[in-house]
Design brief:
Helix content of chain B: over 70%
Helix content of chain C: over 70%
Chains: A mainly alpha (about 325), B mainly alpha (about 475), C mainly alpha (about 100)
Distance between the termini of chain B: 39 Å
Strand content of chain B: under 5%
Distance between the termini of chain C: 52 Å
Structural class of chain C: mainly alpha
CATH topology of chain C: Helix Hairpins
Strand order of the largest sheet of chain B: 1-2
Number of domains of chain B: 2
Shape of chain C: elongated
Radius of gyration of chain B: 21 Å
Oligomer: heterotrimer
Number of strands of chain B: 2
Largest sheet of chain B: 2 strands, antiparallel
Order of helices and strands of chain C: HHH
Number of domains of chain C: 1
Shape of chain B: globular
Low-confidence stretches of chain B: none
Chain lengths: ~325, ~475, ~100
């Protein structure tokens, strides 16, 4: 049994290395991007093997799913234009430098990593978990012990969406050039399933793997799938409409929760005694929704139209 | 409810909340941004007073103490940088609000405001942070906001923004690897906790090297400076000002925070000398390149690269024993540089608007409307060069004393040569104003005097720092666990 | 064994980042680099006794940050490519930026 597991791990590691190599070196960009997506999916397997189911869920939905969709749509746009013939890599002399330098770095890192005692904070978490308001440790870390990080992280996501809007108008929605007549139908069929899975993950988050992050990511990925299936993006950038507010809601709620602690004379982000569970539930729903919408907004790759629908303009 | 614990919460939450408000309701941008900026300036000033009175403190977030929870730390250095951020942020906001609208290269120039406030909030979060991973998140926050702001200038600036983004992402990833190694060794991310636990050894050494490398890349220290000049030279004036004055200082701030905090046991003579030599090379190379520039804003951008080289001299001087003087000197220099450099970029912004371009040979002739800007430029230059009684003079004076006390004549020579280079390139810029027959923008917009005044106030602040020597010495007095 | 994988992926990512001349490829390399750092965190969590959940939360945060930065970079690449009509022309190979 142990042998089978070891063989599986070895195979997984070899596949990951090969895919990473392909993603960085493949002659064809499309090939590289697909390798990267498969790399993300296999990483999700590796996370499962390393007993990190939450990370696995997020990696599959965000690392492979949403990032993959972003990359593919970017690629599609780049590939449409005629392209000057340029060398893909620096000339071969780079090898002479990188082979020894890389090996040295590798040896150093591995040596350092093998020496790590990895004491971890498992005991500290167990001791404080009952006071955190949730049963699932990862959720407790994200929304209680280290809630400040999470606030800034949702901030980064919102900020990225604002930056992308600031840089330019969104191109018209992309119907991928991969010809697949089944895709629209499949997309419509799958979307409700995505929503259900997301809702389930959100609900599970307080006592098992799941919670706002994977749920939001799955939901967002579902939205992107709908776009791929030919749906029109429904987010509008009008300053009078509700979308700007809805996108900012997650961060606003987290900020308010932080400030509430200070206002009640306690620490920033300190929830009043006995209310941690309800606070975290509200934050999770808000964070999950805004992660989903923001990931979807990132995919639009520019400031969406102020009003009306895309169809009218085309 | 005293200001002590509440102040940091205001500085953290206010800019972020204001950013959300102006993103949702762009029509309110200018009043909301200016009001938030004024409040932050007042709070930062008051906090500085509290730190002077009570000394430094740490406050935990969410009622959890380290190692599980995150904390904020407020000491003299953090308070001083928060105040500098507020000064530059407010001046930049007033400048941007009173300038004629920039050319329409992006869908909506009002996106400047949410990005500006987000950047401000990210910087405040960074200066308050006392946790290695919280720092990483804040660094990424600051990077993305900076990239967005640079990109607002369109065209070539967006290419520069992309190069900056890739460089800074690589920097954060390398930094994060260092964080992972330290966490794996000590199961702690909190600065104070790590300071108790770190001992010299292979793993901490590699982690320190990685984190330093990542931060050097973000601080654009020679030879990792390649991304800086284009990114800072091509952005809008207010953006250039905050990037050069504060964003670079933030990366530098983390370097000294780490090396004089958790990593202090590892700061041997060898490492310190290496960092000092990098700093010396940055001073000389940046200065030489600044001297060769033909464009006003590029000249100032290269000057940033040169000036932060001085900051690295703190390491060899402190390792040689002159901890107090080197520490105070280098940090006063960083503060004075921040104010002076922001003044230079804002003044240059007004001057470029007036002349319709920034080529040095086209800046002469009629200076109507930008006289105040040139005065600000001259005063800021005097501080950068280090004429008494400016902040630049004070910083260099303390550094020089540290060098003399420890026999570090090499560092003294770098200080002298750097000063000569600085005077040379800034004199070139000032000379351009006196030349006859410059150009004037075709449809020269009537420039508000507020543009020059913003620059002038910052420049006067840089100059006045020198007069506050006793206060600064007391503020920066507590070296957090200096080496040796 | 997963520790060694961290090292290999890190070197692959670095190598790709510095040798690739295409921006999209540099982004892929950067993503692989970041993943290798996440892998180190999760391996550390696994080695700890009992299982440590803090690195899991850290990596979740990191994954969300990574997609944000990737999306911003892709938006910039798109803008630049749209303007120059040639994405290969914009490479990181030319570090000298001269205004005007």
């Amino acid at each position: 049994m142990a042998l089978v597991v070891l063989a599986f791990d070895l195979l997984l590691a070899a596949a990951l290395i090969w895919l990473a190599w392909q993603a960085t070196r493949a002659a064809d960009l499309f090939h590289a991007v697909v390798s990267f997506i498969v790399f993300g999916l296999l990483m999700a397997l590796a996370w499962v093997r390393l007993e990190a189911p939450d990370v696995a869920l997020a990696e599959a939905a965000i690392g492979a799913g949403a990032t993959g969709a972003l990359l593919l749509s970017a690629l599609d746009r780049l590939a449409r234009r005629p392209r000057r013939h340029a060398p893909l890599y620096e000339p071969g002399t780079a090898w002479g430098f990188w082979l020894p330098a890389g090996s040295a770095l590798l040896a150093m890192l591995t040596l350092a990593a093998w020496n790590l005692p990895a004491p971890g904070l498992g005991n500290e978490i167990l001791a404080s978990l009952s006071a955190s308001g949730v049963e699932h440790a990862v959720t407790a870390v994200l929304l209680n012990f280290r809630a400040l990080d999470t606030l800034l992280e949702i901030g980064v996501l919102l900020l990225a969406a604002v930056v992308i809007w600031a840089l330019g108008q969104a191109p018209p929605p992309l119907v991928p050039s991969m010809p697949s007549p089944a895709l629209p139908a499949l997309g419509r069929l799958l979307f409700p399933i995505f929503v259900l899975v997301a809702a389930y993950l959100l609900w599970r988050g307080s006592h098992g793997p799941g919670g706002a992050f994977p749920a939001g990511a799955v939901f967002g990925a579902g939205g992107i799938l709908m776009l791929l299936a030919g749906a029109r993006p429904w987010i509008r950038s009008s300053e009078h409409g509700p979308w700007r507010l809805i996108l900012s809601l997650g961060m606003a709620v987290l900020l308010a929760a932080g400030v509430a602690g200070t206002l009640s004379g306690q620490d920033f982000f300190q929830y009043p005694k006995g209310t941690a569970a309800s606070f975290i539930l509200v934050l999770e729903v808000a964070a999950g929704l805004s992660i989903a919408l923001l990931i979807f907004a990132l995919y639009l790759r520019g400031k969406p139209r102020e009003h009306g629908s895309w169809g009218a303009a085309e | 409810m005293s200001l002590g614990p509440v102040g940091p919460a205001i500085l953290f939450a206010l800019p972020l909340a204001a950013a959300i408000v102006v993103f949702v309701r762009p029509r309110w941008s200018v009043p909301v941004a200016l009001a938030a900026g004024a409040v932050q300036f007042a709070v930062a000033l008051a906090l500085l007073g509290v730190v002077l009175e009570q000394g430094a403190w740490r406050q935990s977030i969410g009622g959890w103490s380290a190692p599980l929870g995150i904390g904020w730390r407020l000491d003299g250095l953090a308070a001083a940088l928060l105040l500098m951020t507020a000064a530059v942020g407010l001046a930049g906001a007033v400048f941007h609000a009173s300038r004629p609208p920039p050319p329409a290269v992006v869908p909506d120039p009002r996106f400047f405001w949410p990005l500006w406030l987000f950047l401000w909030g990210g910087l405040n979060a960074l200066f308050l942070a006392a946790d290695l991973f919280n720092v990483y998140v804040a660094l990424e926050f600051v990077s993305i906001a900076s990239v967005g702001l640079i990109g607002l200038a369109g065209g070539a600036a967006q290419a520069a923004a992309l190069r900056y983004l890739l460089a800074t992402l690589l920097g954060s990833t390398i930094y994060l690897l260092g964080v992972a190694l330290l966490y794996g060794r000590y199961a702690a991310l909190d600065f104070a906790l790590l300071a108790e636990r770190v001992e010299p050894g292979l793993v901490p050494a590699i982690a320190a090297a990685l984190m330093t490398l990542g931060l050097l890349l973000k601080a654009a220290i020679f030879p990792l400076h390649f991304w800086l000049p284009a990114a800072h030279g091509r952005a809008l004036p207010a953006v250039s000002a905050v990037l050069s004055a504060v964003v670079i200082a933030a990366a530098y701030y983390l370097l000294v925070r780490l090396w004089f905090g958790p990593l202090a046991p590892l700061l041997g003579t060898g490492v310190a000398t290496l960092l000092g030599l990098l700093g010396a090379a940055a001073v000389m190379w940046g200065g030489l390149l600044a001297l060769l520039q033909r464009h006003l804003k590029m000249l100032i951008a290269y000057s940033t690269m040169s000036q932060f080289g001085y900051g690295l001299l703190v390491f060899p001087l402190a390792a040689a024993g002159a901890v107090e003087q080197a520490w105070t000197g280098a940090l006063v220099l960083v503060l004075a540089h921040g104010l002076a450099k922001a003044a230079l970029f804002l003044a240059a912004g007004a001057i470029v608007l007036r002349h319709g371009g920034g080529r040095l040979d086209a800046l002469g002739g009629d200076q109507a409307g930008v006289l105040i800007a040139w005065v600000a430029f001259a005063i800021a230059s005097a501080s950068l060069v280090g004429l008494p009684p400016s902040g630049g003079f004070l910083g260099k004076w303390w550094l020089a004393q540290a060098a003399l006390a420890t026999g570090g004549y090499l560092w003294l020579a770098v200080l002298m040569a750097g000063t000569a280079l600085t005077s040379a390139y800034l004199w070139r810029a000032l000379q351009a104003a006196l030349r006859a027959g410059g150009e004037t923008a075709a449809e020269a917009p009537a420039l508000s005097p507020a543009l020059g005044l913003c620059a002038l106030l910052l420049a006067l602040g840089a100059a006045a720092l020198g007069l506050a020597a006793p206060m600064l010495a007391r503020l920066l007095d507590a070296v957090p666990g200096g080496p040796g | 064994m997963y520790l060694s994988l961290t090292g290999v992926l890190f070197v692959l990512g670095l190598h790709g980042l510095f040798t690739a001349r295409n921006l999209l490829r540099q982004l892929l390399s950067l993503n692989i680099l970041t993943t290798s750092v996440f892998l180190l965190f999760v391996v550390l969590a696994r080695l700890a006794e009992p299982l440590d959940d803090v690195p899991h939360a850290i990596v979740l945060t990191g994954i969300v940050i990574t997609i944000s930065t990737t999306a911003v970079a892709l938006a910039l690449v798109g803008r630049l490519a749209g303007r120059t009509r040639d994405d290969d022309a914009i490479t990181a190979g030319d570090p000298r930026g001269d205004a005007e």
